Structures are given as C-alpha cells and as structure tokens.
C-alpha cells in the first residue's frame, strides 16, 4: 500500500514508519501538524519544526498543516491535511505512532474511515519495555526534548535513550507511575539517526526552557 505517515519526528512516528516500510509498504509522504497549543491533546509540539530536516534525510516529501490546537477543532485541520495528502500522493492508508492512547487512535481511525483510508498502527499495545529495547536493537539514536512530570528535572532534557535510560525509566514507572514510553505526555523525543536516515543529524545548538516546576522543554538546532 501507498502510505502517508502522521509524523512528529519523535520515536513513535519514526519507528512506526520504519516498521511499515519493513512490512513492504511504500512510504509516499510525511504529514506534520504544527500546533500552536503546547498542551495539545493530539499533537507533539517540541522540536516539531525540525521534521523538515528529518524528511530531507529520509528523502520523503513533507506536508505541513498548522492548527490552533483547540480540542476537537484541531481534528478538522488534521482531516484537511490527510485529505490533501491522499489526493496528492494517491494514498491507500495512514500510519500512526499510537501506542496506547485510545483518544488519539479512535479519532484518527474515524478520519480514515471518512476518507476511505486504512489506518495502520504498528505500535498499538506494544509492551513499552520491549519497545524501548527494540529501538536500541534497530540502531535508533533518540534524545529527550522535553519532560513534563514529577520527578523529572532539567538534567533529563537532551538525554539519550540508552540502556541506562531504560533501567531508570522503568524504576520511575514502578515508583511514580511514569509511563516508560512517555505515552502519557511525561516526556517527548526526537530522532537524530536511524536506518531510514541517509545520515545522522548533528546538534549545533540547544537550550532548555523551564515551563513549570517539573516541566522543561528543549529547543534544538540541527544540521
């Protein structure tokens, strides 16, 4: 099938792309939503502008749609851009990085049904510990670009997902119910390199912005 990917540049959307391609599907385009609402129920916002350079190293076209990010209304913008991608690239389906969020998955499924598209969720209900280990086994280089829950602090921003990270995040899951894959919005990520990229992205500038007591957002410049 010819597929478009709902693409944020974080681990979930990039790995979902990787799995869909591995299954033999043709990835025709990436679709990114720029939400003005940092607390969007649907869309990842840290480093979202950097999906452009990720698309370049993946040699894929990127379609961008802006939204105010207002709950439910943002779905109108999502449907608009998926329809545009379908018409432009002759898509048969849409790939999402949904892991456990019924809120996100059900709404994307409804849009796909309305547009006569398959909705493909390669990560759905995947065990989070196994998932994190798979990322490392498949040579995904990932950093955190924001943390938004107790007991995170500034030191976690820009940290790589590696064996030590997995060990510590599993402990935080036991002690504080932090979702190990960040599915509850506890942290956000950015992929610097993976088998889909023609080259690794290099960080040339970074800044951490504190937004609350346990809320820190990272701003990146990459090339």
In percent, how much strand structure appears in the residues? 25-35%
The averaged pLDDT comes out at: 94
According to CATH, what is the class of the largest domain?
Alpha Beta
> Looking at the chains present, what oligomeric state does this protein adopt?
single chain
Low-confidence stretches: none
- Helix segment tally: 6
Radius of gyration: 16 Å
- Please outline the major beta sheet: 5 strands, parallel
Total domain units = 2
How is the largest sheet built, in terms of strand order? 3-2-1-4-5
* Series of H and E elements: EHEHEHEHEHEHEEE
Separation, N- and C-terminal Cα atoms: 32 Å
Which shape, going by the Cα principal axes?
globular
Structure description:
- Helices cover 33% and strands 27% of the residues.
- The strands form 2 sheets. A 5-stranded parallel sheet has the order 3-2-1-4-5, with helices on both faces. The chain has a 4-stranded antiparallel sheet with strand order 7-6-9-8, with no helix packed on it.
- The protein has helices at 11-22, 51-58, 74-89, 102-114, 128-137, 163-176; strands at residues 2-6, 26-35, 62-67, 93-95, 118-120, 141-148, 187-193, 203-212, 215-222.
- It has 2 domains: 2-120, Rossmann fold (3-Layer(aba) Sandwich); 128-222, putative n-type atp pyrophosphatase, domain 2, CATH 3.90.1490.
- It is built from 6 helices and 9 strands; from the N terminus they run E-H-E-H-E-H-E-H-E-H-E-H-E-E-E.
- The longest helix has 16 residues, at 74-89.
- The model has no long low-confidence stretch (mean pLDDT 94).
- The chain has 223 residues and is an alpha/beta fold.
- A hairpin with a 2-residue loop joins strand 8 and strand 9.
